[in-house]
Amino acid sequence: MHFDDRLATVLRNRATGERAGKTQFRQLIDLLGERPQAGDPALKAAAYLRLIALAEMIPVPERAKIVGETGWRFRNPELVRWFGEAHPSIAAAALYRAELSGAEWEELIPRLPIRARGFLRHRRDLPMEAVRVLDQLGVQDRALPLPDMVQMLVDDPDEAAAPEIPEAPEPLILSPANDIEVASEEEPESQAGSEPAQEPEPAAKMPDGEGIRALVERIETFKRNRAEATANDAPSLPMAGLDAAPVRKRIDAFIFGTDSEGRIDWAEGDVAAMVIGTTLTARHDADAREDDFASALLHRRPLRGARFTLSGAPAISGDWIVDATPRFTRGDGRFFGYAGRFRRSAGMAEADRNAGADRLRQLLHELRTPVNAMQGYSEVIQQQVFGPTPHEYRALAASIAGDSARILAGFDELDRLAKLETGAIDLEAGASDFAGIVRTQVKQLQSVLSPRVARFDATVHEVAALLPLAQQEAEMLAWRVLATLAGATGAGEAIKLDLKTEGDEVSLRAQLPASLAATEELFSSEARSASSTLSSGIFGAGFSLRLARAEARSAGGELVRDDKWLILSLPLLTPEDALPSPNDINGRAAG
């Protein structure tokens, strides 16, 4: 019994250089280009993987030259389809030499990229089945035809002076670089009327020996020349940079001024273009009870808490509350308008925040689905659920699973922040010793800071500081603050901590590290700490501190910055809160 082991023999050898890689590339496409036969599917898959690896070693022009060499027989539809998805020059060379049956073309062409189908249209030796499929898919020649009138003049030059051709944009004809330069030099003479310029031949009329390769070379030359011209002298388009324009945020308040008829003639900043010309009232009679501004304008009275609806740009549209004061001239006391302020109502601002939080939660829900899928598949590969997997792939899968877990943790933090800032959730109630939690966590963080010759100079009293929070909630809040500070601490820094109780609250004062003390907006997403073994989350130190502030406010406390200090204040557990509920008493009695 004879069996073909040529493919296994080629794969057994490793290509150590570019020359050996080219040789092995030729061997693989020669073996894979034969008619598909029975064999080991894993061996064929390994051959395609080796081709991908060799592609990184061999430049694109070299690979296109190898594929375009005479003598190859691409009779395998799988290889033809694989090359069809490669670089355009490689795909064109492979499709020009593919030798498939009509049934194979009929099945393959719909699965090829649109670009590859266009290359096939230039072949004149395709079976009728392939031509019929191309017609059904609407694939036409890539060459741009000349207008009918111009084509007639080209075919019959004796009638060149017959009817005048209306001015029309000339067709784009791709030609090599030297042809473009010659055409540009002769154009002024043609315009001067010396001799009519000779029309170039249509791009579709090419020698049969060149075919696809000549077309690809002309396209690449045209693109290269156009890119060089753009790089040297690129005009700025009228709409350039429009996509990069910043999105205008919703405006919560602005100052304005009106004329004597109640028409806005001045407003501050960017709001002016959106509101100038808006008439605040159209009523000037004495019976103006329905319109507060009309009544105030009529009687020249100040305006307090009047409601008004602005329409127009999304940044200003909606309901507003207007406070305005009449203005009079100093000389004769003549009324000449109002000066005031538009502001959103608290209820409207709260509704906007709730709507934004709902949109954020919906977005996070949509993002979790693909991340969960990536994490699940990577864990399947890493744990070898479906069979043995190389260690390299297992390591990559483990890295992907870890990254997915970090992304999901970031999503959870975003969701928690949105819910806390809108009051959708509250921290779990209970009883916890905040002083004991701080002492324990400071001791844990000292082991991380010691290799950097950094430390926490903590002053924590032994007296318990009971909070009306569950143990887990208090630990998360303390760790979010302390770990963020420790992660931002530089080498040799000493951070002072002071925990003490004052009245009915406990206060934790922490000195800011130098990297955070230099940040103007401490609670913004731009505030980031240096790389450290302690991570403050994927969104940085500013986001972590903002989340800690939201947790503190939900617990009835506050997290604020005082110059170079960060102060966390939380209410202590009062004796009334510490008393057990009747249900707890009954439960203990029953137990």
Automatic annotation (TrEMBL):
Entry-linked SMART domains: HisKA
CDD domains according to UniProt: HisKA (cd00082)
- The EC number of this protein is 2.7.13.3
Q: Where is this region: Disordered?
A: 181-209
Enzyme class, broadest EC rank: transferase
Per the database entry, which stretches of residues form a coiled coil?
Answer: none
The reaction(s) this protein catalyses = ATP + protein L-histidine = ADP + protein N-phospho-L-histidine
Transit peptide recorded as keyword: no
GO-annotated molecular function:
phosphorelay sensor kinase activity
Answer yes or no on keyword Kinase: yes
Keywords noted in UniProt: Kinase, Transferase
Q: Which InterPro entries match?
A: HisK_dim/P_dom, HisK_dim/P_sf
Ranges for domain Signal transduction histidine kinase dimerisation/phosphoacceptor: 355-423
Official protein name in the record: histidine kinase
Identify the taxonomic lineage of the organism of origin.
Answer: Bacteria, Pseudomonadati, Pseudomonadota, Alphaproteobacteria, Sphingomonadales
